[in-house]
Amino acid sequence: MSLSPRMAELQTAMNRYGEMTVKNFKIIHAFGDSIVGRLQEYLGEGASVLGVPPAGEYRTNGGDYRGAKFSTHHNGALSLKPIQMGIAIGIPHSKDDGMYWPRLVIEFAIVGDAVSVQIGDALAMRGFPLEPTALDVERVCEAIYEFTKDVLENPVKIATAVGTGKFGFV
After folding, report:
1. Which domain holds residue 17?
2. Is the pTM of this model over 0.70?
3. Mean pLDDT, residues 132-139 taken together
4. How many structural domains comprise the chain?
5. Distances (CA, A) of 159 to 81, 117, 136, 142
6. Is the separation of the CB atoms in 69 and 54 below 8 Å?
7. What pLDDT, on the 0 to 100 scale, is given for residue 114?
């Protein structure tokens, strides 16, 4: 089929948009999987970490949700927008064998040639490379730990974080 110059330009732009959307998806999913994979070891003995859906209900007895821990799982068509990921951290009860499972939401966005990561409602961490290193993953794990501790120690902060849907319990 012969295309007009304008339609050829739109076709080229659409192809680029599709390529960037897939690149966005792959980069963010790989970074998120690395974070979930490292966080339990980072937190140390007694810790449990699961990737869970960033919204709605989740169960902690079925293991990691794999691809369903990302907001892209149920959205159908992909688009170039930030992707959210849910992480549940198992914190042992101090008085019995149970565990608390708070979920926090991490949002990833690619801006130019860098990845931005926002943990809960904290300020975004910017400038991660498109191929994050082990040190980059470690920095995000530290920020997750600090954010979670801050929210749990500060009643005003927990009310704000829960109110925005970026931190909560089952």
Report:
1. 5-168
2. yes
3. 98
4. 1
5. 27, 22, 29, 22
6. yes
7. 97
